[in-house]
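Why run this: before we spend reagent on co-expression, it is cheaper to look at a predicted model of the complex and decide which construct boundaries make sense. The entries below are exactly what would go into the expression plan.
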Amino acid sequence: MILETRGIGKTFGSVLALRDVSMGVAAGQVTCVLGDNGAGKSTLIKILSGVHQHDAGTYLVDGREVRFSSPRDALDRGIATVYQDLAMIPLMSVWRNFFLGSEPRKGLAFDVAKARRVAREELRAMGIDIRDVDQPVGTLSGGERQSVAIARAVHFGARVLILDEPTSALGVKQAGVVLRYIARARDRGLGVVFITHNPHHAYPVGDRFLLLKRGTTLGQYAKQDITPQELTALMAGGAELEELAHELRRE
Amino acid sequence: MTTAPAEADERVAHVGLARRLLIRPELGAVVGLVAVFTFFASQSPVFRSPAGIANWLDPAATLGIMAVAVALLMIGGEFDLSAGVLTGTSGLILVTLATRFGFDVWSAMLVGLIVALAVGFANGMIVTRTKLPSFIVTLGTFLMLQGVNLGVTKAITGTVQVSGLRRAEGYDGAAAIFAGTIHIGGTSFRVAILWWILVTAVATWVLMRTRPGNWIFAVGGNEQAARAVGVPAARTKIALFMTTAFAAWLVGSILALRYTSVQANIGIGQEFIYIIAAVIGGCLLTGGYGSAIGAAFGAVIFGMADKGIVFLGWDADWFTFFLGAMLLLATLANRLVRRYAEEVKH
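The model came back. Tokens follow.
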């Protein structure tokens, strides 16, 4: 395991946002974190990525206990987070966005030629087909933007990639594109934490599944221990769905 | 990376030179520049003579230095309404210290620079710390400086101007560098034009070819996103406010050394002219987009209209009408260009 939590928890004032969650991700594997709105998914990834600090349990990176004070700390340990809103500037070109905050230098200047070339190469290496790295990011589709953000994290030495709902705002085809890049990042040896509320996106690409509900865990399952149907049922709360069906039935 | 240099994508083959030029933010300003020049040059032989060019380049230069700095700040997503009146403050400090307190010109200029940078720093700190709109914050500093300029000048001199800089020690040297003239082919050009070209060149290089340049676009485009990838957003913005202050000091000093006296109300109302020149040059009011050289072109349009109207013997009152029309046309043109630039071709 590159990254592991044991009985981790977090409270905000009197609110128990997360209780006793244990999960892990290994190199070359995808761990999916599933849960409905308010299940504690964002709190968990904010702890993993160094935005929040846990106040119960232990957080281990490479088997050693850590406590990050900032996202920069986590990044320095190779844990990169791609947020839903992506941290990209729509009016800036793809290559300017790609290197934003970590621009290569040549003397005093920003090595623009290198930035253009490397951005193009890295996107190709991930199999991302961008027409022109000079075009503004605002002109890319949602899936393409996610892909550029993933390629950027990979280029800057991420060992663990935390993806916050990368497919939730996308259509079926676009989501498929992003899932393909997740698989590609996994094949390059990265550990991926994939947050989603869609079991149909999670199951094909995931190796293990952590289910969250109301701030606590419903268990962590390896792929061979669970079928897509069971996952969906757990995720939606099978009993609740039946109840809903009953409720909506015509009199 | 051992990958061979990637060959161009076959789908970008149709992106010709024309489109590449068209999507530059300064296009509107260039078109305006050509149109305005053609108009005045065809009507007035003086306008197109070397002496005429030197004449309209001079107001373009002092305005241009400010417009370029303001453009950088606007690309960074902020306004500075105190920039105009700060040129007055810098000039007043220079002349007052040199004529009433026994400073030589160089030390008086240094004090002026320190005060200007302090004002810029304060603007930047207040904006980045409080997250208040810079429009309001710098409107506050604008009014405060306006009061200080008048109040202090009256208290010291009993009038609303300070003068007599020519007699101060070190005047000749400083005046040659900041307010002199250079002769090219029998025509004398103000040395301010060289300062303007230098400022524009440095600003363009910083914006397009340095890391801070990338950060300026980023903090103006989406500050939160920029911060998330490690861009020092607050430092970038404070540096931009200090750059505007530096430009105000430079222009204030140039004008004080040129006229050897400064009116206490100088620079008031200029802040909007700087913003207009920057917008004509392709800057978005919302930040994240624009160009330094475009702002310099915007300033040239101003200079040409300012003097051209006089050359044609028109009433100078028509200048503001012309200004408004240019602003509207330029912003419309820029919006069309940006839409075209952002169009996705599948």
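Chain A has a mean pLDDT of 86. The two ends of chain A are 53 Å apart (CA to CA). Bring this page to Monday's planning discussion.
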